[in-house]
């Protein structure tokens, strides 16, 4: 298996408290991988360590075999890893179209000269329209993004995360706060938009996780206690005791 992401002995402390306590994890290219675990297990922290928002206290993060530990997020992005945020980070006063186009301008290896931009106007516009079509917002393309419904904003955000051509997409709780039908639509969108890419997501909704993920890692108190197929995770006694069982009892 070729690794899209490889974590080796990864550690993160905040002051004296160690939150991520030696994580080893390999996520294969083209895999859809979910990270689950109880509240406070360190899922978001792990997410931020991979995407470069937090510096690592120990160990390494590799992207396609290259050590990216402690690189700034924009450099990691240029190397092909794109992430969304739990809180939407679109520009509310800009139109849907402009938001997507803006995301596209960050395509890795893109040259940021003005003339280069002008040259690529048509190509950019056409690609932006394709992305908007993919996320089902064609009829909403000219309205300010801030006017979209919550679910539409999340779809836009997922579209922007994928638009730049990154081959590793990280989504933090992509269906949080959605209704059942919105969640179903989001699952389909994520499936569609990540074809041929690697997906890493943190998600609380077990329906989403078991529906989308090829493999699931279970993080408990900063350690991965299991990393396996959905079926094996569902049947794992250790996981049930540490996490799923505890949830079922709630
Ligand atoms: N910047 C920070 N400074 C200090 N402590 C932090 C920081 N970020 C997270 N923590 C602590 O690390 C622990 C893990 O938090 P984290 O948000 O990574 O967990 P999580 O598994 O994502 O939780 P949840 O499912 O509730 O979102 C928590 O005890 C939290 O208080």
TrEMBL record:
One Gene Ontology cellular component: plasma membrane
Domain ABC transporter, first and last residues per copy: 5-246
UniProt source species: Sneathiella chungangensis
Keywords for the protein's UniProt record, in alphabetical order: ATP-binding, Nucleotide-binding, Transport
GO MF term set: ATP binding; ATP hydrolysis activity
Species classification: Bacteria, Pseudomonadati, Pseudomonadota, Alphaproteobacteria, Sneathiellales
Database matches in InterPro entries: AAA+_ATPase (IPR003593), ABC_AA/LPS_Transport (IPR051120), ABC_transporter-like_ATP-bd (IPR003439), BCA_ABC_TP_C (IPR032823), P-loop_NTPase (IPR027417)
Protein's UniProt name: ATP-binding cassette domain-containing protein
Cross-referenced PANTHER family: CONSERVED COMPONENT OF ABC TRANSPORTER FOR NATURAL AMINO ACIDS, CONSERVED COMPONENT OF ABC TRANSPORTER FOR NATURAL AMINO ACIDS-RELATED
